[in-house]
Every structure is written in C-alpha cells, then in structure tokens.
Amino acid sequence: MLTDHKGKLIKKYISDYVVFDLETTGINCNCDDVIEISALKVIGSKVVDEFSTLVNPGISIPWRITQITGIDDAMVKDAPDFEKALTDFIEFVDDMVLVGHNICTFDLLFIYREANRIFDKIPGNDYVDTLSLSRMYLPELKSHRLGDLARHYDIDPSGAHRALADCHMTQKLYEALKNEMENPSEAAKAVKKCPRCGLVMKKRDGRFGPFWGCGGYPDCRYTENI
To answer: Exposed (0-12), middle (13-18) or buried (19+): which is 63, by Cβ within 10 Å?
Structure first.
C-alpha cells in the first residue's frame, strides 16, 4: 500500500497481519543494503502464506555478515535486485498491518528508503513492533532481543539470523505477548509511558542532568524532568 505518509504504530494485539524481517549488509539504514526479505501472512492468528527471497545487493557481502547469516555472494548471485523483491513484497503485504521486531528503528527504515527511491512513495501500512511491546509488558527482563525473548517463551530459535526463521520466531512471540497485553503484570502496569504516544519512557542523561525521554525517539520527542 504505497502512499505519501507512514502508517501509525499499533500497541495492541490484532489477529490479521503480515510479520516480516530483513537481512542486510550492515546496520546503517542510510547506506547498507538488503540481502534477504521474508514475510508470513497471518489470518485469525494462523500462518496462511509465506514470502521469502534472497536479494542481490550489487556489492560483495561483508565477511562478518556472512558469518552471522550464512548468506554469501554465491547465494545471491542469481537473486533478484531489491526493486523486484520490494515490488513482490508490497504486493504480498497489500494493506495489511505489518509486524516485526525492532522494525521502527531498523527494517522499516530500509523499506521506506528504497520505496521512496524506487516509487517516490512509501508503504503506508500501520505497524506493530514487538520490541516496543516486550519492553512495555515484560519490563522485568534484562534483554528484549528476539533470541532472548524466544528463550523466555520456549520458542525454538533454530535458524536465527535468517529472515524467514526470524519471522516465525517473531510471529510466535507476538502471539505469546497477546496474553501479556490482556493480563498485564503489576510490573507492566507500573511502567512509565509517554502521554503523547504511549511508548515506554526511558531515563536518559542530558547536558543538564537526567530526564525522562520517550522510547519512540526520534518519531516522538516528548521529555519530562526527573
């Protein structure tokens, strides 16, 4: 669903959605490239379809990325470029809500950058970030990385750091978080939330001392004095 504006962040459970994940040549959304994109279509909380493709980034994949993902230059040699992959992905997603882990500050930024370059528009789909949800409803956990959350819920982490495997983990995580959202713990109820966007507030250090800052920065810049 290509538009001129980003969709909105959803902070609740929905039963119909597309969970997606990217693998990339690095973590800089301004200059690194996508090497794999996968997605699962979920209807009524059940996976009904999947999409997955390697992507030829047009450059050599860094050795450290191959060590993490297992994806090397030979594997992507005959893969489509990202324009083709993104076109197929957008068609697969249509107007459904997107779900992913840390997509607010990572995956969606790659999608927006390339969609804007190729189509002069961006996907306007609303989206759910399971990282934000886990911080909100599982504040007692020290780490909210996907692998650590998978272990917390006894979700099989096999194949981690390949896009389709991470999609399956994220989908199971989102379904597990449904119970946390419907029955929040006392710790979750006590979490300080941004009055503007509803995301978790974090203690930060500034030039004039500590302050509360919204976890949705830079999209939300709400702050409070401590």
So the answer is: exposed
**Residue 5 a catalytic site member:** no
Indicate whether this model's pTM tops 0.90: yes
Q: How far apart are CA 167 and CA 15, in angstroms?
A: 16
Say how far apart CA 57 and CA 170 lie, in whole Å.
Answer: 25
The answer to whether 93 and 18 are in contact (CB under 8 A) is: yes
> How is the chain split into domains, by residue range?
2-182, 192-225
Active-site residue, from 101, 144, 161, 168: 161
Kindly indicate whether the domain formed by 2-182 is annotated with CATH number 1.20.1260.10.
Answer: no
- Residue whose C-alpha is closest to residue 84's, from 40, 49, 118, 124: 118
Q: Read off the pLDDT of residues 115-148 as tens digits, 9 standing for 90 and up.
A: 999 999 999 999 999 999 999 999 999 999 999 9
